[in-house]
Amino acid sequence: MLHSEIVIVGCGNPLFGDDGFGPAVIEEMEKQTLPDNVTIQDGGAGAPHFIFNFLNPEVTKKLIVVDIADFNAKPGSISKISGKDLKPGAYIDPHSWDGVDQLCRIRDQIDTTIVLCQPSRILKKGDEDVDMGLSEEVQKAIPKAIQVILTEIGVDYGTT
Amino acid sequence: MSKVVEISPTTRHEGHSKLVLKVNDAGIIETGNWCSITPVRGVEKLAVGKTPEQVPKIASRVCGICPIAHTLAATEAMEASIKCEIPKDALMLRHILQLANRLHSIALHDILILPDFYIPGTETKINPFTPEEPVRSVAKRIQRLREIGQTIGQIAGGDCIHPRNTRVGGMYRNVSEQAKIKMYDLAKEGLVLAHAQAEFMIAVIRAYHKRDFVDVGGMKVPLPKDLGFHDQGYLATHAFYGSSSLEENPSWNINRFKEARPWDWYMGEMTVDLEEPRYPIGGTTKVGTKVNPQMEACTGIPMYDGQPVEVGPRARLVTYKNFDEKGTQGQNVAREMEYQDCLYEMMDCIDLVNPMGKVIADYIPDGDGSLGWATNEAPRGCDAHIARVKDWKVQYFSMLVPTTWNFATCSAALKGAPWQLAEVIMRGYDPCVSCATHMIVLDEDNKVVAQKLIQ
């Protein structure tokens, strides 16, 4: 795997409504011309198992994770936090690993930023029936999230 | 007198499941129920009315671990229904993608089972994340094997997690000559590592099963020599890839498959009366808790020729390579033996790819409503998808995934083992419970008789 200096990963499952925000952002970014040192990746629901192979601390300088989270804001609001502010969870077992735990292990070697969107409906892990498609508010948040990501990686395509 | 103990949730696998075990005074399992408690998703219902291009993409999102197997099985079920044969080069790219998936999945399973085992010749259990040797080198080798699998998958499939190069009728694009060489070089590197990794794992697995006692949460548990034995049959449709209803002599027969309802199969309501706080992680379920596997299980019980069967690496090796080792040991050894087979086959497939060859069928029919099916030998076993497509719309779609096959078989294999080792037996199946949880049960006339929670 050719490692990149900058890796952007969209996490989530499009089968669960707004949880598909991360992959939707990546799908939109695929339409753009990005610098050669950037890799974008739809991590899907198994990101914690797969994305860490994209990272090589000797090459990778920056990791941006795109996901949804409940931070008590208006649906569609975008927020970003640094990996340094993440709190490690308890290790249970590698297959049930929370991605946050893994991000905490690499944050000292790779500058990590998490770009988050407030979903319109709070999803509880593992208890949802399938419901495809993003809510209107979260759909509208995609350009904003991309702008935040591009600023983060120092790309300026002007105002859109 | 029998007692009931429950391990919930089970750990070191994908999804949520639990073990409800009726044990005798010596702690030996008399009846074991392993059941999925991942909520039912109803993907099959969602697929109806979608285009054959959309459904494999939906199927690939069912689980985070097996998107490649589901994409391939769903795409080929569509092709089987519309009766579309794909060019040889497209098929080779799919084979490579599928084998790449198997490679990195075996490596992940190594990580998951290693904490059960001991460093040979010592009383030290293996922590795959320790910085100390010799485990550190093993962990690095596993990581490199996963990288190799993912990279080859990315080249052949367009993406290493949710492949986007596959399409109904073939593949979107062929690979370049340079890409072909790159895949070959990676496979060669992987072969050396896989050889070493399989040798290490098989030594560790065999050393474990030679022991008389093992430690589980500080308890000294006797290790039976027939751990995980069962008398169910095996089902495999290909040594490496799969089969489909388009073939002249398909290796899966939809008419030999039937499904039973969980409430006809699992134990009814009981009360937990054995509790062990030392059991990792966090102890077993508290005494007095009501359990009801009949009602809590979220999958049907698939049967082939009237009985549950085992699918997975051992089923493939038994069916196609005269492998004859039983039990959990045989299962784990078989998986390790697939490491090298997988890379040799991958190199053969890469050899056969012609970068100048076409990868899309000349004509892709819209479908006349015929029932078509395809199986894909996913890392965990036979993944069968069934579809009916008419006028480029999916009328019917069903996924019969590996772990669904294995639930009832593994439940039978638990009998006779100390309850503390039930999870060791379960992990031998490398379960992926999220995928397995789709409950549509058909009766003998293929009519839907149960659709739990997805009405």
CATH secondary-structure class of chain B:
Mainly Alpha
Query: Could you tell me how far the N terminus lies from the C terminus of chain B, measured between alpha carbons in angstroms?
Result: 41 Å
* Beta content of chain B: 15-25%
The domain count of chain A comes to: 1
Largest sheet strand order of chain B: 9-15-16-17
Please state the overall shape of chain A, judged from the principal axes of the Cα atoms.
Answer: globular
Specify the oligomeric state: heterodimer
Query: Helix fraction of chain A?
Result: 10-25%
Separation, N- and C-terminal Cα atoms of chain A = 33 Å
Overall radius of gyration of chain A: 15 Å
**Largest sheet of chain A, if any?**
5 strands, mixed
CATH architecture of chain A: 3-Layer(aba) Sandwich
Q: How do the helices and strands follow one another from N- to C-terminus of chain A?
A: EHEHEEHEHH
Largest interface: A-B, 26 and 37 residues
Share of β-strand residues of chain A: 15-25%
State mean pLDDT of chain A (0 to 100 scale): 82
Key terms for this structure?
heterodimer, A: 160 residues, alpha/beta, Rossmann fold, five-stranded mixed β-sheet, 5 helices, 5 strands, globular, B: 455 residues, alpha+beta, Cytochrome-c3 Hydrogenase, chain B, four-stranded antiparallel β-sheet, three-stranded antiparallel β-sheet, 19% strand
Walkthrough of the structure:
The complex is a heterodimer of chains A (160) and B (455). Chain A is of the alpha/beta class and 160 residues long. Chain A is built from 5 helices and 5 strands. Chain A has helices at residues 21-29, 47-50, 99-106, 136-140, 142-152; strands at 6-11, 38-44, 62-68, 78-82, 111-117. A 5-stranded mixed beta sheet of chain A has the order 2-1-3-5-4. In chain A, α1 (21-29) packs across α5 (142-152). The longest helix of chain A has 11 residues, at 142-152. The N and C termini of chain A lie far apart (33 Å). Residues 90-96 of chain A have low confidence and may be disordered. Chain B is 38% helix and 19% strand. Chain B has helices at residues 43-47, 54-59, 67-82, 88-113, 135-157, 177-210, 293-296, 313-321, 327-352, 402-413, 422-427, 433-436, and strands spanning 3-7, 17-23, 29-36, 166-167, 170-171, 213-216, 219-222, 233-234, 242-244, 257-260, 270-271, 290-291, 301-304, 309-310, 368-378, 381-390, 393-400, 441-442, 448-450. In chain B, a hairpin with a 2-residue loop joins β16 and β17. The model of chain B is unreliable at 437-444 and 446-455 (pLDDT under 50). The chains are: A alpha/beta (160), B alpha+beta (455). The A-B interface holds A 1-2, 13-15, 41-47, 49-50, 53, 92-96, 126-130, 132 and B 11-14, 16, 38-43, 46, 58, 60-65, 67, 108, 111-112, 128, 143, 146-147, 150-151, 154, 159-162, 281, 453-454.
